[in-house]
Specification:
The complex is a heterotetramer of chains A (about 375), B (about 325), C (about 140) and D (about 575).
Chain B: H1 11-19, H2 23-32, H3 43-78, H4 80-86, H5 92-117, H6 121-151, H7 167-176, H8 180-183, H9 191-194, H10 203-214, H11 223-230, H12 258-291, H13 300-324
Chain C: H1 2-10, H2 28-49, H3 56-76, H4 84-111, H5 123-128
Helix pairs in contact in C: 2-3
Chain D: H1 3-6, H2 26-30, H3 35-63, H4 76-112, H5 120-142, H6 156-159, H7 165-192, H8 205-237, H9 250-283, H10 291-304, H11 320-332, H12 334-348, H13 357-380, H14 382-388, H15 392-422, H16 428-454, H17 469-499, E1 541-544, E2 549-552, H18 562-567
Antiparallel strand pairs in D: 1-2
Helix pairs in contact in D: 3-4, 3-5, 3-17, 4-7, 4-8, 4-9, 4-15, 5-7, 7-8, 8-9, 8-10, 9-10, 9-12, 9-13, 9-15, 10-12, 13-15, 13-16, 15-16, 16-17
Classes of the chains: A alpha+beta (about 375), B mainly alpha (about 325), C mainly alpha (about 140), D mainly alpha (about 575).
Chain lengths: ~375, ~325, ~140, ~575
């Protein structure tokens, strides 16, 4: 058991933390403690019954093998009421105890403390958006240590599920409803490491890549990060916007929009600007049959290409490019004007980035933006 | 386990009495009754089995509709105001007439069974025809109801909020692409058709559609109609309800009123399908009755078909108050 | 299963004469009587719809429906004379539906407050849709 | 199928006219009303589907060998289609019909002592419904496939661009009705076609299990029907009952779906339990221990199965109140399960155990079902389920129950009744090897996934963190071992059709009625009405060298010979 656990824990490369066992990852939240205790108790009960049953089976099979020479023995009992009642009732008693303890801890999991620090979570295909009380947003989840954190979550398209294994917490995000999750972690996440945050409810193509990291910071670091995070976009001068903010924002788009021309859930951004501004690449078509040229331009529905891009970000369903499903969620309320400008600038200067969205020229020394 | 031989009155034996086959007796019965299948022993045996089978089938029917009844209960429990409001758009009188029609056809069906049991062929045929007429009558009335609702734009889905009788409305209906007209043409090759944007959010379109509707779009709401719509809807006889999409100019319409019609079409629609199936069954019975298959010995199909027809009636007996009789 | 056996003798499988060898013969007058009473009940329940007796409207409506259903089952569908096992099958199915209904009502009532009234995914936009009849996103904060 | 016996001449002395040779030609099979032939057709169809589903399983496992793409061309989308098809095929086309429709159809009426099922035409009809359902489901592949997972959770299933969703839903809808009609048929058969002496408490336990299953099939499946219907109209016409943006509620769909699909789990496992009761008592040549408890526990499970569906939704937004209720009720299933396991074990006590292939499968079932059942406790417990839900722990758990128990039981039963169905004996040694290979492969594949899950690996993942790879590699290797075991099994079973020695009427020494008619059985099962004794009393069984099988000395059976019963009553 111990050997095995050490083997497996070594196999899990790069995890600097102690306490991983063969069965469970380290406990990094207050809820994990009881949950694991329960888990181990049930395991022990299972080991007991399983091993007992297997041993009994082996003995029975060996002892009562049919002997060719002797006739059938028919002296076995047909039934034994007390015995049968016993093994009907005993398991019941055991599981009722298990139920009780599980239930007690579950209530705790279901009721976030009043004083908890609340973070708004929006999930959509296929990413997470975390909004903090001061209006800052982030793609990875940053939480302060030493105090209960409450996630109030909603999904803007299909079912998703927020799952943080190290914290032993999980909850579905149901469109049309708010759902809640809380935990408290007391130990700061080691440098260069992050807890996994998975989407555990199947949500389509990007389901398995809809995972983020969770970083637990001590309160002071957290506050520092929070202020920086809330202003990072404003701090960037307009002319540097596209190569500083662009790639970061593109991280939210890369699930569907490639930069190397491969057709994803959505159209690739390679040569996108040329297409929409009527340059080479020809006159693309929309699902409703109309072409870019008939939509974009002075006096048309979209005065300028920028206008079209902007409305496609805020209101994607309005004009869907032919050959693609209307699958893009609206980024209304998630991307302010400056963010949109950054994205548009990113598209305009596509040639200055590689196919992963990395800026090819060297980035001039930036104003202090801590993005961990 | 006591043995059959030692205890003739054993429960299982008693059961055996009605469900048993013992060779000699069986063969004699088979000679006597041509309709008797080889694995049954007596007509009684066969009849009982058929009855049990049918009742099991009826149980599945109950559960089949049960799902919808549960959905109804959940929705009504969540939007009570919607149900009490929207039900006024339904025509209680028509519904009542339909109920009576179904009950009468049920009665004729029950009588048909009796005539079959008593070897009165003409009576049987007449009753079956009457039942069939009842079914037709029901469907005709339902057709009028449906077409009226659809004309009034009292439909399911987002189209409920889109006035269909002006160009703008038509256009918007297309954009929302949730109108049955656009989605019925299932063209699986083109996934775009399938991506019905229920959740791929199109807020501007959505909200504006509703707004415009409530602003009573061009050519629809004359001041008089607006005035009419001020008051609480008071049922079908109120002329304001005769006008297309009046509900859209009604300031008192609660949110999500379309939900009522969604479940209404779902349940009555499924029931309608069952009525059609019942018509097929009755027609088949009629054919056999005319051919003279049935007698006091053998009327199982009539009886079983009758059971099916009664369950259709039974379900309507509950649908009627649940949709038409909400005050 | 002995009760089924006794009912089988009730159904008069063996009784001679014009009476069919199987099934039960329901007198015409009874059928007609049941039919007419069903029509009566329909008229009554329609009439009650126009009177406002608050909660009792639905109670009366469903009560009458229940009576009608029972009549149909007992007499039109011969359950009155049929094997009790058939009745059991039917009743069980109804019970299951009611059970499901009870559980689901219980459940939805619990999380009702965390639900939007329609157009949920775009709550912000619908909040601005202030037109009458527009689905309004209402969110009561959840208090455990 | 007729080629089975055409392949080699039969000495009509040893093999009188049977259901295979009774009539010949394709039509005589396609339009047969004989429950045996329908059962065989089901069997073939189910096994073919099992092969297809298995191929998809191997594709899934292989794809998961490395993070990201492993098989060239298998993108995330393709992978999603793969696991969806694997799930849908295995659940709706294989496991659910495997035992009741295939083996049940063949064995049940004979075991009961009936000439046929109550409604032979309905029986054939439900077979063709199965065929149509299967065709629809497969045809969805041509129309763009469906990547919704076998659970069809909305809103994803109503919004996914995949084109084949509606055909697939229709297919499953039809399959549901096939299942309903089979169940209906069986209930009536058990109620009405029992010969004199076949009292309720003298029915073989397999029949009790089939009866309990039929109850669930009849009462639960319609709800699936209406659910899928609502989903279809939802997707096609956006009617909005499940759509939050229309005031609907996705959790409502989950309730509807699991109200069927949890009982469905018992549709899968109950008949397997019935088979195990037969296998253990016959191959241990020992009267089943605690007959009534086992019989009634089947009914108890059937009843409980309708009250626990919510334990699939503990973290899905179902209210804490119902989570608590459902968790509590779910635990009650532990009682009948425990009763069965312990009674089977005590059946071995003072038995005369022969370790041939069916018995090995029975023992494998006992071990695997124990693991599957015990890990159920982790998932029924509220707080541990929060961590384990929707992880590979769940995957492992339900594979232990649905495959390790239901399918292993089915294959055990297949070996048990193979001589009766085909009239041929298979190679016993190869059988043992095959069984052991499958058993080892299975545990390597799925026990690893328990660790994988509790370490936090969510299910339905195409790509995963590198730290999980080691588990995936082990699991995939296991799946290959298992596959080789199944291929071996397929080989020697097929070989037995052509080369296998003719089977005696009673190769194992069973007492239930199917062992009293020749193998393969004659067209109308029993020329003379068999006299029903205690089908678990092996005191009257004798091995016969000439017959190379067992014979029943009916005079020695206390239940058929009262004055004997007086003498040795135990």
């Amino acid at each position: 058991m111990n050997i095995a656990s050490t083997i497996f824990s070594n196999l899990l490369a790069g995890d600097p933390r102690e306490g991983r066992t063969l069965w469970l990852p380290p406990q990094d939240s207050n809820l994990a403690v009881n949950s694991d205790l329960m888990f181990w108790w049930i395991n022990i009960i299972c080991y007991f019954f399983f091993i007992g049953i297997v041993i009994a089976l082996v003995i029975l099979v060996v002892k009562y093998r049919m002997k060719k020479d002797r006739p059938f023995r028919t002296d076995g009992p047909l039934h034994h009421l007390p015995l049968e009642t016993t093994w009907a009732v005993v398991p019941l008693l055991i599981v009722i105890f298990i139920f009780y303890f599980g239930f007690r801890d579950y209530l705790n999991f279901m009721t976030p403390p009043k004083n908890s620090y609340e973070i708004a979570v929006t999930a959509q295909k296929w990413g997470w958006l975390f909004k903090y009380p001061n209006g800052a947003t982030s793609d990875d989840l940053y939480v302060p240590t030493g105090r209960p954190v409450k996630l109030s979550m909603r999904s803007s398209d299909v079912l998703h599920c927020c799952y943080i294994p190290d914290f032993r917490v999980k909850k579905d995000l149901v469109p049309g409803r708010y759902s809640y999750l809380w935990f408290q972690t007391d130990d700061v996440t080691p440098e260069g490491w992050g807890h996994n945050l998975f989407c555990a409810e199947y949500c389509g193509t990007g389901h398995s890549n809809m995972n983020r990291k969770v970083y637990a910071l001590a309160q002071p670091e957290f506050d520092a990060w929070l202020t920086a995070q809330s202003q990072w976009l404003d701090k960037i001068p307009e002319e540097e916007l596209y190569f500083r903010a662009g790639p970061k924002l593109y991280a939210r788009c890369q699930q569907c929009h490639s930069l190397d021309g491969t057709k994803g859930i959505g159209p690739s951004w390679k040569g996108l600007w040329a297409r929409v501004s009527g340059g080479e690449g020809g006159d693309g078509k929309f699902v409703d049959g109309t072409g870019y040229q008939s939509q974009i331009g002075a006096g048309k529905q979209y005065q300028t290409p920028e206008d079209y891009i902007r409305s496609s970000i805020l209101n994607p369903g309005e004009h869907v490019v032919a050959g693609y499903a209307n699958a893009m969620p609206s980024f209304k309320g998630q991307l302010n004007d400056k963010g949109i400008d950054a994205v548009i600038g990113f598209m305009k200067h596509m040639d200055e980035f590689d196919t992963k969205g990395k800026y090819l020229k060297e980035v001039p020394p930036a104003p202090k933006v801590s993005m961990k | 386990m006591t043995t059959l031989q030692s205890q003739p009155n054993h429960a299982g034996d008693a059961h055996g009495a009605d469900g048993a086959h013992d060779g000699a007796h069986g063969s004699a019965e088979h000679a006597k009754y041509p309709f008797l299948q080889h694995h049954f022993d007596t007509p009684h045996h066969q009849f009982d089995s058929a009855k049990l089978g049918m009742w099991l089938f009826l149980a599945t029917e109950v559960l089949f509709f049960g799902g919808l009844f549960v959905a109804y209960a959940v929705l009504r429990n969540r939007f009570p105001e919607v149900f009490s409001y929207s039900s006024h758009y339904l025509d209680t009188i028509m519904g009542g007439i339909n109920t009576c029609v179904l009950i009468l056809s049920s009665l004729t069906m029950a009588l048909a069974v009796r005539f079959a049991q008593t070897n009165r062929k003409t009576g049987l045929i007449i009753c079956l025809i009457l039942t069939f007429m009842g079914a037709i009558g029901f469907m005709v009335i339902k057709y009028f109801e449906y077409s009226h609702k659809i004309h009034d734009n009292l439909v399911w889905g987002t189209t409920f909020y889109v006035p269909p009788h002006d160009a703008a409305g038509e256009l918007e209906a297309k954009e929302l692409s949730v109108a049955p007209t656009t989605s019925i043409t299932l063209n699986p090759v083109n996934p775009a058709v399938f991506a019905v944007p229920t959740l791929a959010p199109t807020p501007a379109v959505d909200a504006s559609a509703i707004k415009q509707a409530s602003r009573a779009p061009a050519g629809m709401a004359t001041p008089t109609q607006m005035a009419k719509a001020e008051g609480l809807p008071t049922g079908e006889h109120d002329p304001s309800f005769a006008h297309p999409a009046t509900h859209l100019v009604d300031k008192k319409m609660p949110a999500n009123s379309h939900v009522f019609f969604a479940i209404y079409y779902a349940m009555t629609g499924l029931h309608g399908v069952h009525v059609l199936a019942g018509m097929v069954v009755i027609a088949w019975l009629l054919k056999r009755a005319i051919r003279g298959d049935f007698s006091s010995d053998y009327f199982t199909p009539v009886d079983v078909g009758g059971l099916y027809w009664h369950i259709v009636d039974l379900i309507w007996i509950f649908l009627f108050p649940l949709f038409y009789l909400i005050h | 299963m002995s009760h089924t056996a006794t009912t089988s003798h009730e159904t008069g499988g063996k009784t001679p004469g014009a009476h069919p060898i199987v099934g039960h013969l329901v007198p015409t007058w009874l059928l007609v009587f049941v039919g007419t009473s069903l029509l009566m009940l329909t008229v009554i329940t329609v009439a009650v719809r126009y009177i406002d007796i608050g909660e009792f409207n639905i109670v009366v409506a469903l009560g009458v429906a229940l009576v009608k259903a029972t009549l149909v089952c007992l007499f039109f569908m011969h359950l009155r004379w049929d094997r009790s096992f058939n009745t059991l099958v039917f009743v069980v199915s109804v019970v299951l539906v009611l059970l499901m209904m009870a559980f689901l009502i219980m459940d939805t009532n619990q999380y009702h407050d965390t639900q939007f009234d329609g157009n949920a995914p775009n709550a912000e936009s619908t909040l601005q849709a202030n037109a009458p009849g527009a689905p309004v996103a209402r969110f009561k904060p959840y208090s455990p | 199928m007729t080629t089975i016996n055409l392949s080699q001449p039969l000495d009509t002395a040893a093999r009188p006219d049977n259901y295979i040779t009774h009539t010949r030609g394709f039509m005589s099979w396609a339009f047969t009303l004989d429950h045996k032939r329908i059962g065989v057709m089901y069997l073939v169809s189910v096994l073919v589907s099992f092969f297809v589903g298995g191929v998809f399983a191997l594709l899934v496992r292989t794809e998961l060998l490395t993070p990201g793409q492993t098989i060239p061309g298998v993108t995330a989308d393709v992978y999603n289609h793969f696991f969806t098809l694997h799930g849908a095929i295995m659940v709706f086309l294989v496991i659910i019909p495997s035992i009741p429709a295939a083996l049940g159809n063949f064995i049940m009426p004979i075991m009961l002592g009936a000439k046929d099922v109550a409604f032979p035409r309905l029986n054939l009809f439900s077979y063709y419904l199965w065929i149509f359902g299967a065709l629809f489901t497969v045809s969805s592949l041509l129309l763009g496939g469906f990547d919704t997972g076998w659970t069809f959770y909305t809103p994803y299933s109503t919004t996914t661009p995949a084109g084949g969703v509606i055909p697939a839903l229709t297919g499953v809808f039809i399959l549901g009705f096939s299942s309903i009609f089979t169940g209906l048929n069986f209930i009536v058969t058990v109620h009405k076609l029992r010969p004199p002496g076949m009292t309720w408490f003298r029915m073989p336990l397999f029949l009790w299990a089939i009866y309990a299953t039929a109850i669930i099939q009849v009462l639960a499946t319609p709800v699936l029907g209406i659910t899928l219907l609502l989903l279809i109209v939802e997707r096609a016409f956006n009617i909005g009952i499940f759509d939050p943006s229309m005031g609907g509620d996705p959790v409502l769909y989950q309730h509807f779906f699991w109200f069927y699909s949890h009982p469905a789990v018992y549709i899968m496992i109950l008949p397997a339990m019935g088979i195990i009761s037969e296998l253990i008592s016959v191959h241990a040549h020992r009267h089943i221990f605690g007959y009534k408890f086992i019989a009634l526990s089947s009914i108890a499970i059937a009843i409980f199965s309708f009250l626990v569906w919510g334990h699939h939704m503990f973290i899905s937004g179902q209210s804490p109140l119902l989570n608590t209720l459902f968790s509590l009720i779910s635990f009650s299933v532990a009682i009948p399960s425990a009763v069965k396991v312990f009674n089977w074990m005590s059946t071995l006590y003072k038995g005369n155990i022969v370790l041939n292939t069916p018995m090995l499968y029975a023992l494998a079932f006992l071990v695997l079902f124990t693991i599957g059942g015990l890990t159920g406790i982790h998932l029924a417990t509220l707080n541990t389920d929060v961590h384990l839900h929707d992880t590979y722990f769940v995957v492992a758990h339900f594979h232990y129950v649905m495959m390790g128990s239901a399918l292993i039981g089915m294959i055990g039963g297949l070996h048990h009744w193979w001589p009766k169905i085909t009239g041929r004996m298979y190679n016993e040694n190869l059988g043992r090897i095959g069984c052991i290979t499958v058993f080892i492969g299975f545990n390597v594949t799925f026990f690893t996934q328990f660790f994988l899950g509790s370490q936090g690996m969510p299910r339905r993942y195409y790509d995963y963190q590198p730290e999980y790879q080691i588990y995936h590699v082990i699991s995939t290797i296991g799946s290959y071992i298992m596959a080789s075991g199944f291929l071996l099994t397929a080989y020697y079973l097929l070989a037995s059709l052509f080369g296998g020695r003719l089977a005696p009427a009673n190769p194992w020494g069973g007492r239930s009625l199917e062992w009293q008619c020749a193998s393969p059985p004659p067209f109308d099962n029993f020329s003379t009405q068999p006299r029903v004794g205690d089908c678990y009393d092996f005191s009257a069984i004798r091995w016969d060298e000439k017959e190379q099988g067992y014979v029943v000395d009916r005079a020695l059976d206390p239940t058929l010979n009262p004055n004997l019963a007086a003498k040795n009553s135990h």
